[in-house]
Amino acid sequence: MLDTAFDQNNESISTLSFDEFKKIIVNDYRTALESRYVSLLGRKEVLTGKAKFGIFGDGKELAQIAMAKVFRNGDWRSGYYRDQTFIFASGISDVYRFFSQLYAHPDVEADPSSAGRQMNCHFSTRVLDDQGNWLDQTVQKNSFSDISTTGGQMARVLGLGLASKLYKQNRNLDYLSYFSNKGNEVTFCTIGNAATSEGVFFEVINAAGVHQIPTVISIWDDGYGISVSNEIQTTKGDISEILKGFQKEELTNGIEIFKVRGWDYAGLCETYEQAASIAREKHIPCLIHVTELTQPQGHSSSGSHERYKSQERLQWETDFDCIAKMKEWIQSSGIATDEELDQLDREAKDFVRQEQKRAWADYIRTLTLEAKEAIDLLARIPNEKADFAAKKLQSMVEPSLKEVYGQVRKILHELKGKQTEGRQELLNWYKVKQEINEKRYNSKLFTDGVDSPFNVPAVPAIYNEDSKIVDGREVLNLCFEENFRRDERLLAFGEDVGKIGDVNQGFAGLQDKLGAHRVFDTGIRENSIIGKGIGLAIRGLKPIAEIQYLDYLIYGITVASDDLASLSYRTFGGQKAPVIIRTRGHRLEGVWHSGSPMSVILGSLRGLHVCVPRNMTQAAGMYNTLFRSDEPAIVVECLNGYRLKERLPENVGEFTVPIGYAERIKEGQDITVVSYGSTLRVVEEAAVELERLGIFIEIIDAQTLLPFDKAQLCAESLKKTNKLLVVDEDVPGGAAAFILQEILENQNGYYLLDSQPRTLSAKAHRPPYGSDGDYFSKPSSDDVVETVYAIMHEANPEKYPSMFE
Known about the structure:
The protein has 805 residues and is α/β, with parallel strands linked by helices. A seven-stranded mixed beta sheet has the order 11-10-12-13-15-14-20, with helices on both faces. A six-stranded parallel beta sheet has the order 2-1-3-4-8-7, with helices on both faces. It has a five-stranded mixed beta sheet with strand order 17-19-18-21-22, with helices on both faces.
């Protein structure tokens, strides 16, 4: 199989001449050498202070070269921060860009993966243009943006691979030809041996075997997880041994398992050729356990592996270093002479050094230019401290923007209120640079492209005299059906979503109408449900990933937070995954499924739109907006609202609720009450009782928390009422505190108040089971009445005497 395995063009060939064979071998050896010198030099750059931190892929070179040989245009990588050799060998990136990322060069041309936002060895390909439009994924080799979360790269593998199956099976998707060549793509995943102890690894292995996902999963096994050996990490000390129960057998699903030594170049090439062919042609997942790998420099630049490896182990790693073993093989096979190999070694070392110097020079040029501009402006100011700041910047051996702008800001502090010569010029320059630095370091939390939800036109719901009164769940059901018939890209999946149409019947009957490839069940695996949505979304589909209850979201929060929420930001707008996480929560009696942990969501999911509709009609309008846009979101439906009666809009699949805009539910002049979700109805109940007490509240429904009230409706209301109460059922200091901060600070609501603003939330614990427990644990209409009345009493005690004194 060597002749086919060595084919660089992914085409089967029968024979190779010796010269052709030698050229391939020599080129692979050169790539391995260059990658090794990148690791060695990169570590030095960290230790000398030029870079902050380094993590490298030395010791894994040959396995990654073998993998690159079978990696085709259109394929996807979901990888691990040891994969630099694969990235070089596949052409996804190069040495110059590697060092640019190591130095955190904030230029997307120098570091296309992240524009300096991610540490080195975190690679991605750009799949969007500057306007957020999709590029053609079939004409390039694709790498999903890496994350450092241990094992986190596993979850999205399911969606990346499932997309190939769907594109292969569903001819209605053929028009999306820039995402797939009729499903002829394989997803390659890599993971370290220690990370296979993570639960998400087993989730994905199980799910890939169930659904026969076309993927090749490589385990780079160097025997350790930092200082912890395999014997402590893994039963039997061998991950492929304990996975044997997943081995595919005749007439069963499952996975094909391969085991190969990481220094065996020929064996690696043959193994990857076989596994990739099985995954691509038969859609059977394959796992390649690459053993006997080394890690010559230890885990990272922050420590030394000599602290925990024995002398015997260190000697073995020297003897079985994969590059040394490849050199022995080349020599013994007569492929190249010692002189040729020595020359290759010198050339590789020189090339890496040249590219490192070029990357450093380009990085420093950017910093030096801004430093020089600052020095020139500071020198024009007749001030002793400004002169000192200029000289300090001139003396910098290695400029840093932190130092440049730190000095400039100190001088602006010093010159405040003074009409000093040169001050205004420095201030003007600083303001211009602030905009540039905002783009460099703080932009692209969302893609903000042409298909942003903010560009979706607002379409009001239409009702007439004959509009039906139905259960809220029926509004959702009809909304989903109309949209799924309109857009073939839409998919929905999760526990109990398919056959029974979800536990609250939002998808009832839709699997029968639309097919099991559009609406389907999954196992109980929240991490991989969300990951599946991420992978499907970046490949052009429109997934709804359902998490059955809001408290189950915690099981998948690492994938949602570390991967999905940060994707646009960490790629500088180069990638997006417009998955919608659908869940339900808020009001319900009992410790479980009754939570409203919105502060968890607000703290961990910046980068998602957070929608909190008060009823199913509002939820439908939000879905209609999100289906027509391209940014990720989470929609939290009211668990106790599915069987409440609502009027069915005539345009149930078309009307839209704008994302980021609050709604005034009730006019009033005495106090503004802001709420959302299930407590919004509680506030409405309280309003009736308050009117009997002569108090007329204005009710604002936030509708979405991220973003919050873009039109500043809350501040507008405060201009009239001058009093504020925020009501929700999160823990004290949770989402209500977030809303308060938004209104007081971002909307300048503080200046509109004539009394202390208040929040009313649930107790710090979860509610006990039963209606009584709910009443004493979460805000009731009585609590709202009394809190509003207390605010009015404080403002006018004569008109509103105390209730409880």
